[in-house]
């Protein structure tokens, strides 16, 4: 990237400040290969596995923009068929024209992919323009049939440029196309047809690209909002922790200093001060444990509603089924809290590690056991493995990932399972006895 490997900037040069996605800086104006970067550098593949709303929108935009290349074939194909059948034009000339149109098509589709990837492929568009001029100035039987080729190139060239530049391209194409391709004086209807194509089609493509940028920016905004929510929660917990133990730690420091000085003069008073230090330390530890315990106490009903809202905002259709209809009110608090953490971790994995388009969450009580199932259609070759049946021995202070959750569920006498469920699905399930977690 510009001759410097990413993440290996020279030590003598200051690191550039990070800019929000979608903004533009001086170093982003040009790229090797004559490509000008105009949008966010993020790239979304066109693979069929991406079933999110963003992926579907990108594929739809790609095919809408790529449809413009059909214009490059319709008119010339009709003219070629008529020429071969009526005028006896050689097949060799028609083959050469078809080869030129094929090259134009390849360049057109490549440029569209570059635009959707966040770059404007200047050289590719210029090469497509050169092929267009070569085809328009070549021998052909009917100008009206070839006018669509100029409009097809204009609909590509206006992508990724300013509105003023796009207007200039449309006007120039409208004027140049009949001049370079004209073999006989055209009638007014032909000129009007050429003008309409060279103006309406390019601006239609720009509108389609603008809609795609709105969808992409909205997705980036949702991601930024999620990161901000996590940061705010961390700051809130840090403030609470500071308020709880700040005074105790300050008192411990002062008492320890006093005890150090008294140790040389009055051992009895020094012992009293150290006893007070021990009491303050135990009190601080108790407050920290209470804070962590309260922080980890999550309402299952609220978590289910929150997870459904977050998944749907991320483009994942979420279906929630709770049996019995009375909800989670009858569940023990420790079981409810543990299941809430399972739901949160499962939703996090869906958003981070899958390309799911739908997620089903089911909660039911059977034979003294509560069963939670989360199933999504985002399983793929790169899906991470998860522990199957965890052994007892976990405790509250372990991690809250799948491994840590498996241990906590096992310590409650339950089982946590995660893995492929067939037909491209991934399932996370937790089964816990109603007697509660330990």
UniProtKB/TrEMBL annotation:
User: What domain of life is recorded for the organism?
Assistant: Bacteria
Q: Which UniProt keywords apply?
A: Kinase, Membrane, Transferase, Transmembrane, Transmembrane helix, Two-component regulatory system
This entry's Gene Ontology molecular function terms read: phosphorelay sensor kinase activity; protein dimerization activity
Sequence ranges assigned to domain Signal transduction histidine kinase subgroup 3 dimerisation and phosphoacceptor in this UniProt record: 233-299
Would the keyword Transmembrane helix turn up in this protein's UniProt record? yes
Transmembrane stretches, start-end: 60-84, 90-108, 120-137
Q: Biased-composition ranges for Basic and acidic residues? A: 26-38
| Cellular component terms per the entry's GO annotation | membrane
Q: Where is the composition biased (Low complexity)?
A: 382-393
Instruction: Provide the protein name.
Output: Two-component system sensor histidine kinase DesK
Organism, per UniProt? Thermopolyspora flexuosa
């Amino acid at each position: 990237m510009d001759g410097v490997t990413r993440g290996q900037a020279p030590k003598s040069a200051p690191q550039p400040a990070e800019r929000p996605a979608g903004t533009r800086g001086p170093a982003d104006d040009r790229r090797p290969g004559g490509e000008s970067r105009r949008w966010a550098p993020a790239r979304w593949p066109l693979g069929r596995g991406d079933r999110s709303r963003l992926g579907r929108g990108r594929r739809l935009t790609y095919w809408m923009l790529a449809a413009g290349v059909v214009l490059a074939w319709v008119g010339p194909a009709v003219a070629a068929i008529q020429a071969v059948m009526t005028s006896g034009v050689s097949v060799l000339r028609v083959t050469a024209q078809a080869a030129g149109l094929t090259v134009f098509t390849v360049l057109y589709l490549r440029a569209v992919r570059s635009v959707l990837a966040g770059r404007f492929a200047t050289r590719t568009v210029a090469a497509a323009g050169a092929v267009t001029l070569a085809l328009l100035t070549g021998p052909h039987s009917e100008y009206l049939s070839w006018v669509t080729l100029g409009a097809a190139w204009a609909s590509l060239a206006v992508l990724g440029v300013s509105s003023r530049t796009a207007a200039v391209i449309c006007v120039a194409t409208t004027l140049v196309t009949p001049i370079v391709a004209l073999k006989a004086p055209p009638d007014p209807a032909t000129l009007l047809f050429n003008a309409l194509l060279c103006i309406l089609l390019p601006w239609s493509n720009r509108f389609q690209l603008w809609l795609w940028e709105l969808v992409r920016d909205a997705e980036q905004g949702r991601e930024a909002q999620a990161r901000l929510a996590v940061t705010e929660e961390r700051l809130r917990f840090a403030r609470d922790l500071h308020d709880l133990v700040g005074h105790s730690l300050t008192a411990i420091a002062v008492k320890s200093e006093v005890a150090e000085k008294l140790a040389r003069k009055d051992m009895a008073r020094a012992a009293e001060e150290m006893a007070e230090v021990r009491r303050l330390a135990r009190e601080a530890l108790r407050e920290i444990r209470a804070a962590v315990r309260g922080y980890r106490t999550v309402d299952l009903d609220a978590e289910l509603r929150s997870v459904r809202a977050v998944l749907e905002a991320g483009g994942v259709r979420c279906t929630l089924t709770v049996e019995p209809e009375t909800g989670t009110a009858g569940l023990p608090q420790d079981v409810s809290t543990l299941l809430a953490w399972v739901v949160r971790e499962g939703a996090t994995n869906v958003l981070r590690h899958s390309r799911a388009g739908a997620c089903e969450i089911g909660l039911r009580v059977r034979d003294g056991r509560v069963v939670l199932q989360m199933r999504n259609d985002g399983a793929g070759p790169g899906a991470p493995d998860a522990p199957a049946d965890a052994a007892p021995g976990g405790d509250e202070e372990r991690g809250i990932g799948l491994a840590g959750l498996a241990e906590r569920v096992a310590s409650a006498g339950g089982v946590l399972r995660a893995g492929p469920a067939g037909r491209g699905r991934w399932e996370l399930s937790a089964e816990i006895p109603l007697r509660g977690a330990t």
